[in-house]
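Appendix B. Chain record.
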Amino acid sequence: MRWTSGLLVTTALATALIGALAGCGTAPGSATPGVGGSAPAPVVPKSANVAEALDTVNAQFAAIKAGDWATAWDAWTDAAKDEIAKDVYVRTNEACPALTAAAFELERVTPIDDTTVDVGWRRDGISEHGTSRLVGTVWQFDPGTTLVEYAAGADAAIAKRTEAGECK
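Structure tokens predicted for this chain:
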């Protein structure tokens, strides 16, 4: 499936995943009686709000496609922000944008727990993945291994992209 506006794909995937997850939990009356003969309240695990997690991924894709590198960085998790400074990410991508983001193709959406949804996609012929993480009440994007290229700073990342002919 081609990743274009994302809204239709997000809605369809979220509906399918929520429907699949709807049966998760402990059936009423199946709890084991506790000490003193009283039954503890049934444990019903929370499920990640996949639609909200995908909204975060869609926002990331839209910011990249628009060349709005600052907004893309702003949506990252604090851990990712601590790893790569905003100016390094923005300066690298403004000088030598390697991400054309002409089309993102969603490959997989995997809820890990109630605060983590792993997402895989293809763009420009490359498979990548990231993670939406619920931090407090806000979903944030964790770009994962994508950050490696920025670790040596903007000048090194720009030079590497330029040498490889990756600037778009």
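Further analysis of this model is presented in Appendix C.
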